Batch of 3 targets.
Target 1
Amino acid sequence: MTNTFDFSPLFRSTVGFDRLSRLLEAGTLGEQGAAYPPYNIIKLDEDNYGITMAVAGFTEDDLEITARENQLIVSGKTAGAGVPEGAVYLHRGIAERAFERRFQLADHIRVTGAAMENGLLTISLVREIPEQMKPRKIEISSGEKGKDKAKLKTITGQRSA
């Protein structure tokens, strides 16, 4: 029996994150360490998003967040100073291994900040669409043909000599 997943309902409602299919496929392939650290991606409203990562055992100094082009990279390295010298683990369930997690961001998504509280790293994202790319309403007017042509030329940015 093979496992197949139908992500098509998710693709219809994705706003803000590009290449979501690649992220979902990478999460379901079962690669070693692909699920560490666990994270949530949330949509707060139409233009604000958040990524929350469980980074227990890491401090702010152990983490590095880099945003470049359309990619957000979160990496962590611990110094391993939490265990007294000579101590032996009887069970080690808290993963404190180094990691690097990459997120593909859609155009016009900007990282606005990051905060860490109770072992959770929260990264704030905002979608800022430039004014010239936002939809605008063009009024339709009735009247003489000459006046309509003048308005059309003004709208398209062409001016008659």
Note: The two ends are 72 Å apart (CA to CA).
Target 2
Amino acid sequence: MNNLLAVLSFLTIIPTKDYDLMYIAKNMYLFPIAGLIIGSIIGLLSFLPINEMILASIIVLGLLIITGAHHIDGLADFADALMVKGSKEVKKRVIHDPATGSAGVSAIVIYFICSIIALSSISNNQLYLSIIVSEVLAKFSMVLLAYTGRSAWEGMGSIFINIVDLKRFLIGLILTIIIVYTLASLEGFYALILSIITTLSILKIAERSFGGISGDVFGATNEIIRVVNFILFVHLNIRTSFIDII
């Protein structure tokens, strides 16, 4: 439980005691469980009897609040650095710049628009599970990134990269498979495969642009995987219902 609380302290604003970043990194394999908790909490909003578009906006806002907008800034920085012309050193300076450029603002706007439209398009009886599975896979994507990637420079991201070994990755993968299969059956595996392909694609882009990955790339990947799965679940019919699970 203490290990899980450490992970939640890093990924959410849920009040816990302060934990050392090294200790959190050692327990990164629990990120999918944290995603399950976050998704379950925010997913409860899906039962509100209100207009679909308004409901989707509230859900996106809820995700932003519970995560403390922890990763959305990474998406903006990642977009700014990718769009700027120049060498890896130029892109490195841009990604470390605290100011958000036009590409970063555009990425955030597109992210919110796509999330809201996708969530409002998922049928009511599938929305709760879609939120949970998407959040679990968003968190697993960071575990995958930490295991497969190399650090572009020393920083917060490099701590996770250096610690996540094959054992921790496999535990995270097994936990993810169990959760997505239980909640979404075969459709959960489709989402997992899409998440892996998308994450590895982001990794290749980051390696070409920066020479590796950083904390901002972790954050951007989390946001991208979440919205990609929202869009996927618009087109998938999840066979397992929450009532069946209970």
Note: The first helix runs from residue 2 to 11.
Target 3
Amino acid sequence: MKDTLDENNPRKAWMGLLAKAPEGRVAALLDEAIARPAFNWLRAPEIGTTMVRARAGATGAPFNLGEMTITRCALTLETGEVGHAYIQGRRKADAEAAALVDALMQTDAATKLREVLLAPLEAESATAKAARAAKAAATKVDFFTMARGED
């Protein structure tokens, strides 16, 4: 799975960035970028659960791993664009901000939001991913450097 913007499906990429953003980060970047436009709720933020599925060894038959708490909402701008959001956890304000960004990305504000909101989120995500990879690499053990005892 790529953590970068997908040229073939940009909405999928920005929705992933918004869903994975740290708490309060999307709202902070959005408020710095533009004034929030008026909107109407299609579905006000609500908290629920969803079943998380997994596969044994990433190739086996799928099984229900467990439930995860999510917050979801949908809104429409006065110009007609619809925005949706699904955020992990109990974060109504983050879901509202993500849905608003989703709707705004379908307007003329998309270029500005891509530069001042999505690009920083993508950079922060890449930095965090590199830090996790470096931390994991530090624990790597190379067993092929040991002598086998055969001459």
Note: The mean pLDDT is 88.
